[in-house]
Amino acid sequence: MDNSGIYVGLDIGTTSIKVIVAERVKGQMNVIGVGSARSNGLSRGVIVDIDKAAETIRSAVRQAEEKASIEIKKVIAGVPANLVKIERCRGMIAVADESKEINNEDVQNVAAAALVQSLPPEREVLDVIPDEFVVDGFDGIKDPRGMVGVRLEMHGTLFTGPKTIIHNTRKALEKAGLQIEQIVIAPLALSSLVLNDGEQDFGSIIIDMGGGQTTAAVIHDHQLKYTYVDQEGGQYITKDISVVLNTSIENAEKLKRDYGYADAQQASDDELFPVDVVGQSTPEQISEQYLAEIIEARLDQIFDKVKQHLDEIRALELPGGIVLTGGVAALPGITDLAAQRFGTRVRVFTPNQMGLRHPSFDEALAVIKYQAALSEVTLLVKSALTGDTRASVALEFADTTPAPSQPAAQPKKATKKQSAPQAPQEQADPDHKGTVERVKGFFNHFFD
């Protein structure tokens, strides 16, 4: 499958909204336009003022349009992991084709059957990922199309979230003159960008340190298994600096960006810089180390909360360690500080594309890569979210057309809710027995 074409990723963050336009040609993703605007109308990663958010989105989109020399109509939007629930789903149908050969429509129908869930009125299906198909009792099948059978099953992972978050996102984009091509859960997209194949397989933790919140996500067996959101982020660090140094929020943000260190041990007590203090006519001289102590105190609090929740499910035993993303991850010394607090290997992911070499661009780039990497059968499954099982999804499109996808919507039917995902049964390669035992212990504790 050649997913060539233009992809537009949108990251609606608490402190900034970013738009990235990329062109995929022969498997190569080339960024051709970037837009960024200071957020307005958001709080803790969620849109709270639709009109203000729409205006900021329009501003960021216009910048990207000018740089890419295209008109943007559709975007792939990342949504935060706030209150996301991860559930197992399964569906089963009789193959409709008289020849008993499984086709696109059968895949859509079995996906629609798997989406039949009993959801509370305030929740909505965000995404569905097929884990495997079963044809007449033969499991482990990734793509059943073309196979012969009379009974088709699909086992998958279902993600649901608050209707308010999704509605506000859709409404803001609509007011900005845009359509949603795909809604992507941010941690799920980030895993495809910041983790290699082995880290996704054996297990890793992604900690997205944004302006309004910090999100920890556990990835194992290429699946999102767990999320935790701490409602503290870069804005709290800025407020701490403002309060302690008695300076404005604007000055505090500038101090954090220009002189800030996450680890006070790495800052210098001899390096001084001026700080405009409210009520004083002349600036005060503050040391680099004193500023770092303020920043480190807040980071310690965030890391302690995240660690407490990760310890409860023994996630820190996973061999992939921790990958930090988001704007706060750009603070010098944060890797060493996080490694000390979590007691595991830590690294920061920074995109290597020109003009995007800052971890704050990770999510916007991730949703593009995630969408471009979707297989045909996954796109068919996702199309069932619209409720239109008759659609062929036009998978036989021209090579120059971007990969199709459909916006998420709540299924119309309802049955009993499924339980939490179970631990994968397969073990890793024998050369990794020690690692496997630790991973096995983690999942036995978490999923039992």
Q: Order of strands across the widest beta sheet?
A: 3-2-1-6-11
Helical stretch tally: 12
Structural class: alpha+beta
CATH topology of the domain at 234-300: Nucleotidyltransferase, domain 5
Regarding quaternary structure, what we see is single chain
Q: How confident is the prediction overall: mean pLDDT?
A: 86
Second rung of CATH, namely the architecture of the domain at 234-300: 2-Layer Sandwich
Principal-axes geometry comes out as globular
Spans of at least 5 consecutive residues whose pLDDT stays below 50 are 388-433
SSE sequence, one letter per element: EEEEEHEEHEEEHEHHEEEHHEEHEHEHHH
First-to-last CA distance: 38 Å
CATH homologous superfamily label of the domain at 234-300: ATPase, nucleotide binding domain
Give the DSSP E fraction (strand runs of 2 or more residues).
Answer: 25-35%
- Estimate percent helicity: 25-40%
Function: Cell division protein that is involved in the assembly of the Z ring. May serve as a membrane anchor for the Z ring.
InterPro entries: ATPase_NBD, Cell_div_FtsA, FtsA/MreB, FtsA_C, SHS2_FtsA
Family: Belongs to the FtsA/MreB family.
Domain SHS2: 7-194
Write the layout of secondary structure elements.
Elements: E1 5-12, E2 16-25, E3 28-38, E4 42-43, E5 46-47, H1 50-68, E6 74-79, E7 85-94, H2 104-114, E8 123-135, E9 138-141, E10 151-162, H3 163-175, E11 179-185, H4 186-194, H5 197-202, E12 204-209, E13 214-220, E14 223-230, H6 234-245, H7 249-259, E15 272-275, E16 284-287, H8 288-312, E17 322-325, H9 334-342, E18 346-348, H10 362-372, H11 376-383, H12 433-447
Parallel strand pairs: 1-6, 6-11, 12-17, 17-18
Antiparallel strand pairs: 1-2, 2-3, 4-5, 7-10, 8-9, 8-10, 12-13, 13-14, 15-16
Helix pairs in contact: 1-3, 2-11, 4-10, 6-7, 6-8, 8-9
